[in-house]
Amino acid sequence: MSTIRLENVTKIFPPNVVAVDNVSFRVEKGEFFVLLGPSGCGKTTTLRIIAGLEKPTRGRVYIDEQDVTDLPPRKRDIAMVFQTWALYPHMKVYDNIAFPLKLRKLPQHEIDRRVREVAKLLKIEDLLDRYPKQLSGGQQQRVALARALVRNPRAWLMDEPLSNLDALLRVQMRAELKRLQKELKITTIYVTHDQVEAMSMADRIAVMNKGKILQIGTPYEVYHRPSTIFVGGFIGSPPMNFLRAVFIRRGEDFVLKGTDFEVKIPRELGNEICKYVSEGSEVIIGIRPEHIYIATREEENAIPATVYVTEPLGTETIINIKLGDTIVKMKVPREVYFEAGTKIWIRFDVDRIHLFDPKTEELIV
């Protein structure tokens, strides 16, 4: 197990493309750390810098507090698993796994012991005499993982290794990979654009966009306390809803008033908001779909809405509703169905509302 630390790492590609912008973080020993973000956000470039496949324009990379910024990949003793499995088609599974050990000129008995040990761990011991073309996608992925594991690396670097698998197999492999990482306690940095993958596997998540890290935290923290509108909108399925409103004080009460709705908020929350914004200021409300409920007209904070479309998902239902011209998604944890155009009443869980600054897009409270 090793620690990995990046200190003010920047990567600029000619002529002036900033792929990674002043990124700093530390991965602890045995931690499963996920770099999450959309395509082109810089997460793969960051991983390649850690691996030594790219050299940073500025900043330093440390493994176990040793500066490895100028070391070639082979001297960093880390293993990388790519999106494409990159198995040698002319070699059998045994030889694919054994290849990095043969490069190190280990004795044959040691190579054989390690290959069979890791094959048993990944449940592919009965595939050692096959060629890659005779394997399924999931089996090929296991072989690629075995090849990375067999030399006992200081750390695992994984670049979207499950993205080429079908949906069912991807779910199975997520669980297997998480079990394996916890069992072996290998420090792991995992790159993905799939927020479900990140939430289900990570000890901590670093959310990236446009080369910058916007937030680092546990899955619980980035989900329940997003630092920016981007993080709130990227994490969650369906994503967080965003609505513009004005913060108003009415006597002892506080209200968030939008174009087509009005929400009275608790006095404690209102007093907290007053520390950051003045009365009459515009804010952006963030509310997750599962924190919007079907209501009756008589309930406090009931908001009239029109059903746009219903998406039944078996154990839950996604209801798209219209508040004026804005589409809002709500998640109901049961089977319900409304025809398009149906008038309903909804209410927000005011204890689960997030408020963001419309200019900086950063969290207020």
Write a brief caption for the model.
This protein is 25% helix and 33% strand. By secondary structure, the protein is α+β, with helices and mostly antiparallel strands.
Architecture overview:
By secondary structure, the protein is an alpha+beta fold. The chain has helices at residues 43-51, 93-103, 108-121, 137-149, 167-184, 195-201, 219-224, 229-234, 267-274, and strands spanning 4-13, 17-27, 32-36, 58-63, 66-67, 79-81, 155-159, 187-192, 204-209, 212-217, 241-250, 253-257, 262-265, 282-287, 292-295, 303-312, 317-323, 326-332, 343-348, 354-356. A hairpin with a 4-residue loop joins strand 16 (303-312) and strand 17. The longest helix has 18 residues, at 167-184. The protein is elongated. The two termini are 38 Å apart.
